[in-house]
Design brief:
The structure is a single chain. With 142 residues, the chain is mainly alpha-helical. The protein has helices at 8-24, 34-43, 49-52, 58-67, 116-127; strands spanning 91-95, 136-140. It has 2 domains: 8-81, Orthogonal Bundle (Transferase(Phosphotransferase), domain 1); 91-140, no CATH class. 37% of the residues lie in helices and 7% in strands. Strands 1-2 form a two-stranded antiparallel ribbon.
Length: 142
């Protein structure tokens, strides 16, 4: 078994794992030791995020799973391909399981029109669980 040079597709895999964790609240592979973890990563395929979080669009599953392909030749060959068309005035909001899931932006009059950091701050303030790490990421077109 030969080793090949590491390239940008390793970073794409890592971003896929981070996306998976943000979308599902767990890592794609869990094992009792590093050997078992490496075996799973190289020989099995993670469950699609939508199996753990029903309602996610199939397009998101496809992006995350392609980014996390164990064979780097199956991953996105270029960063430019690792993207989705962004709808005008689009808003993407993801958070870890340290944030409660029963919130609605519509309940905050005018919040969607505010800066992304304000949206993240309000959700963090009002919905974080005090006994867990919490992260909120908000992306929006300026």
């Amino acid at each position: 078994m030969g080793f090949t040079a590491v390239d940008h597709r390793t970073d794409i895999y890592s971003i896929g794992v981070v996306m998976y964790h943000l979308l599902t609240g767990r890592l794609p592979f869990e094992a009792a030791n590093n050997f078992s973890l490496i075996y799973q990563i190289t020989n099995t395929r993670a469950e699609p995020p939508s199996r753990l979080r029903p309602g996610l669009p199939a397009q998101i599953d496809a992006i995350v799973m392609r980014a996390m392909a164990s064979d780097r030749e199956e991953r996105y060959p270029r960063w430019e391909e690792f993207s989705l068309p962004w709808p005008g005035r689009g808003l993407l909001l993801v958070h870890t399981d340290g944030i409660q899931t029963h919130w609605k932006l519509e309940a905050y009059s005018g919040l969607q029109g505010r800066h992304a950091s304000v949206i993240a701050g309000v959700l963090y303030r009002d919905f974080r669980r005090t006994n867990d790490d919490s992260t909120v990421v908000v992306l929006k077109e300026p």
